[in-house]
Records
---
Amino acid sequence: MMNKTTQTIGKSPTATDVGIVSIQGLLIISAQLALLLLLFRQFQIESAAFLRLAILAFGGFVIHALLPLRLRLPFFTTLSLAGIGIVLGFVNGAWLVGIGLVLIGICHIPTSFKIRATLLLLAGGILMLQRARLIPFPWSEAIWPILGSMFMFRLIVYFYDLRHDKTSGTFWQSLSYFFMLPNACFPLYPVIDYKVFRRNYYDDDAYRIYQVGVDWMVRGVVHLILYRLVYYHFTLAPFEIMTPAALSQYLVSNFLLYLRVSGLFHLIIGMLYLFGFRMPETHNRYLLASSFTDFWRRINIYWKDFMQKVFYYPAIFKLRGLSTTKALVIATLYVFVMTWFLHAYQWFWLRGTMLFVLQDILFWTILGLLVVVNSLYEIRFGRKRSLVKPVQTWRNVAALSLKSYATFWFICVLWSFWTAESLTDWRSIWSALGGKYSWEVLIFPLIVLAVIVLGNIPRDSVRNIKASKSDPKAWGRERLATVAILVGLIGVSIEWMHTSLGPEVATFVHSLRSGRLSRLDTAKLERGYYESLLSVDRFNSQLWEVYSQKPANWLDVENANLKRFTGRFAQMELVPSFMSVSKWGTISINRWGMRDQDYSEAPASNTYRAVVLGASSVMGWGVGDGETFEALLEVRMNQEYRGKPFDRYELLNAGVPGYQPPQQLEAVDKALKFKPNAIMFVATGREINRSLSYIAEVVRKGIKIPYEPLAEVVHKAGITSDTDEATALKKLQPFGREVLTFVYGYVADQSRRIGAVPVWVFLPQAREGVWQEEVPETIAIARSAGFQIIDLQDLFKGHDISSLRLAAWDDHPTQKGHRLIADRLFDAIQANRSSIVDAAKDMQPVRLQ
Amino acid sequence: MEDGIKETIKKYILDEFLPGEDPNNLTDDTPLISGGILDSIATLKLVMFMEERFGITLAAHEADKEHLDTLTDIVRLVSEKKS
């Protein structure tokens, strides 16, 4: 019920006005929420599903605030269930809720704690087997990450509180705790404590709770925009770190990617505030941590509290017989072992596979030991605490800043170790210290220092303080800051506003407004197809989220036994006469090791024959036999060109998934025996870098390079099988153009040697990204090699990409995508018919020097 | 009895964790855990002191904000345990 006369904005509630907000207050909050929605939209915050969920939440907030208190939890639960339906669909949502109700129900069976715990473990075990796909399940894979994030930790907390808490919660509290509204959109979710969730419900003035919720959501958006700034503009791959300046950029940007987690957690908890849940802060200015213990206390506070409650205190109370120091050391190390284990457990529920990576183990061990040492120091020497704001002098600020600065850099180094793809990768970045020093080496250290000093200057803050305790002036300043940030960001996001500031500013703002993968993650995603590289940054990466949606049984070339090792330079080839029925249709390989019809070795008379070289897009990853663009193009050419001038047209699909440009050297040699009239080389982007990666790979594996120019490059770069990947790539970088020039030259020369027309086709990826970087240079190299060029860079422009690519984690073309490629290729061939088709009639082998 | 418990606890907190602090600043409802005065190590020290001084035994789940966040909470917990 709303009290229009007595409630004043910002005062602590009395027993009778709990949850009541004035009309004025409600309007102020609603206006800010409307701006926030606009901000979400303008900056494409998270996903389209999140925007829908935010509309539901903000609309629901107004109704919720007007309802009598007793109806609010049921309403919030209903809204939460509706949110699950909106994001996952009715059927999947119903499955998720059904499974959840069974798990909650088990907790409340009127029997002993041990029996309930056993039943829960049993139910969890069955679900784990299903998650690992060892037992079939009737629901969609899409619900696993959300089901996991709702129950994997909260069920532990809930069960713990049921056992120990004297005041058990109500039915609506239980439901709202597990199915809470924002969770449907977020697989990564803070571990909210059940007791705090209940205890802090409307324990302060309602208006103030709502306002803090808005503040935190705005703060979350700011974190996410800063994250994008770092993610798009500053992240580097290990092989790009050549100088000390690049090294400092890498260390800082790598750690700052965590801004995404802190941003999302602020958004999530801020949204809960709108429904009266006055939760504690999730993060407390973690960049300012002045020791390892301080860092552990400031970053992901909910995780620290969860570990403390469920593992640390129970362990230390059990070890009371030992000395305090021994008990503390054992309990702290136990917490870090469990943190490592639970991260692997979390990964399992979200991804369906186990995560046991050496860096993970070492990272948590090192951090655990550092926290132990720090704790022992605190036990011995104490920690400075004060009930009043201490008088800060510049000397104090300087001392504190120095400590924070040292902690920051140490954490950056540790973080780089944790998130490195391998230990050798991590070791390789330090060779940059021997690189060229310039003034740029000071940029990041100075920026970090400035941020830390400014952050450590004391100021009045109302962070998470109840209304009765806050200073009205500070409270007013924070209101002003929230509205100023909201209006400022929306203003900047308006197109005419940022375009009027010049093209560079406009491009920069545009980059911050779009939610996409960075160039490095796009490259990793592309590599993921080819090399099954799934060691993406564990818990702070957008790429990780993309992968988390990928079903465990997504078509895997290695597992499907589609390829076999040859022991030669190209390493792999398709297994002749292989056949498999995949989710996408039949995959049939002919006796020549091509995914195609069973052609004769030599073409029949008056037949035009072209061999199409390429990788998975050519082979037709994700479509059935006869649905590849090569097969469709062949049908079209036979329909349109029969008898003009050839009687028959044959396109031989020599695509092999995972093939990099240098592997086509072997493929073109194999193609010659089929006596083609044309050899069509299909390039898909990053040709130079992918070539270098492949050279580094074969050198590392000790595979003989039978091509003298490539062997010479390896010699000049000074790499051997002992050189780690990142170092090898660094050393090969200067030879990128040379390598691709040789590859293209060889393919074109071999074609001409047998009188075939060399045609080079550029096939883009469905999404904008890193593939675009090398396109102009690649086209120039192909042209110099003497290829006929067919550039399809604009192939996907103006099309709905979601219908043209297989999935968010797999950019390979769908059936519709292949049809589009075939049509565009036909048009291009038609436009160049005289040189690509008709000329073949008269073309003679060329004797090359 | 409760006043005696409160004074004992207050003196311990002031001596152990807030040396030099004006005792008037530590009121009955000063937030100790949520205010950052009692971190996990300090909480354990306080628990051990309470157990030894008042001859009570605390459980792990009682070492939380609900039971130890203010002097009032702590006194209530000790009184319950003693009775």
Note: Chain A has a mean pLDDT of 88.
---
Amino acid sequence: MLAALARRLTAGVAVIVGVVTLTFCLLRLAPGDPARWLVGPNATPAQLAAQRHELGLDRPLAVQYATWLGRAARGDWGTSIASGRPVATLVAEAWPATARLVGLSLILSYLLGLLVGAVQAAQSGSRLDTALSVVSVTLFALPGYWLGLMLVMTLSYWLPLLPAFGAAGVDAPHLTGSGRLLDAVRHLALPLTTLTLIGTGGAARYFRGALLDVRAQPFVTTARAKGLSPARVLLHHMLRNALVPALVLLGLSLPALFSGAVFVEAVFAWPGVGRVLVEAVQARDYPVVTAATTISATLVVAGNLLADVLAAYADPRTRAAGA
Amino acid sequence: MRRLWGDRRGAFGIAVLSLAVLLALAAPLVTSGAPAEQRDVVGTRFLPPLATDRYHAFHPLGTDRFGRDVWTRVVYGARISLTVSGLAVLLSVLVGVAVGGAAGYAAGGVGTLLLGVTDFALALPRVVLLLLLAALWPPNAALVIVVLGLTGWMTIARLVHGEVRSLAARPFVEGASALGAGRARILGRHILPNALTPVIVAAALGVGNAVLLEAGLSFLGLGVQPPAPSWGNMIASGRDSLVNAPWVAAAPGIALAVVVVACTLLGDAIRDAYHRDVGHATWDV
């Protein structure tokens, strides 16, 4: 168990070093000189040379790479070209908003997806199963930014119920206690619904398959033959065994959820990492883009690792196979 | 193929995708005018669906803020979206089959190295990588194809690797080897053709994903550039007129969703028709 964990940790660190290396190579391969972006079109050659020196671009590639790795390891991402603020501060300010949105949507879409998947598996082949399949595959296929816009159109413009963008109203600093909480919840409602609906579509598809696989196992037949009620078989025998695929799904769906969050944050002006990333890309703010890339890759690797560990904890068979 | 038609999901998927490809190919025949055509902008902008303008031109899906026909742009957008996604998936399949085939058939170090590279690429968040590349190079359709292709081959490589490993142990491979066939010939003529079903499934799902991602990049202004119509940049341009002209953003989104649903259902149907478990590739966004 420990040896397997150590091996996975090493692999995870290797992936993160790989990401840092990859961003370094891509930045050097890309057309255009980052120094030129910083000094602007009217700079003299001397000013350009001074900027190149400050960025370390005049040093040998190997030295630049070593410096790059060292700074990445210390979390020193430089300053944003667009805002002049330290990149580490920008990202540190943004990530709680993303974590809140993605975390809540993960929990909600898991619960809803499990519910829908369980109903479908219990009634597989029925009209209800078909109808729910159509709904889940459609939700899964919808682009998040488009679903978000449609929700804004109906719930913010036609029926003015919910705010269309941001994480807090302009008057939020003047609100107290419950008023402030209500304001935060109202602002969270639309982006969370968008991400959750799409996540539910995927989760329901997955859980339906996982539960049907479990149902074909001999121990389910045994439980039925013992005369247990269908509800008890589902709750005590099938769900417990569908837990491992659920944990695997957690690892698999993290990158997807994060990707979804990038677009949804862009639509709803949600002040998270995704929006920071998109705005940095549009402004060609390289230091912010590379930092956001590396940090999100790290989060995804960490999520996968956590899912592996949890799956090993939940299923003795994987534990033995992984060791 | 017959089994696919018998499956309602397969029939729906094939029908919708054929219709979309047909419409895209026949774009000049089923639309009136060019996708970027603007006539009297003031007089023809934001016409609702089913309206006829002062030139007696009929607009089944209305017009956008430059008076351009939304139906025409959706159909021409299908050309771009489907071409970009199709070529991207083709690139993914080529790279994936090459890497997966080599990894599965080459024993020892090379195989391990290739699998390691695949796992590394699989661990990267695809959208973030896409955004990084789109930020570094000036956006255009060719870049989107290359970027989508080079970030989508890993699932296919894993699937091909698994298939090749199990096929390589089968008697007919041993037979071919005994007859004196070389390793490259065995891999190319005997193993890979038998490993194609999961690749087709992954490709069908991959086209759906690629359509979504291309639209996403174009929506953010990092993909296909206006005035060329792509479903993504059409949704982006309809965003500002959501209140008074919701059809501008709604129409391309519905087209997008229908095509992606068709790809997903077709992938499911092919998988079930051949009773192969290809894992849960739908999650590889």
Note: The CA atoms of residues 167 and 185 of chain A lie 9 Å apart.
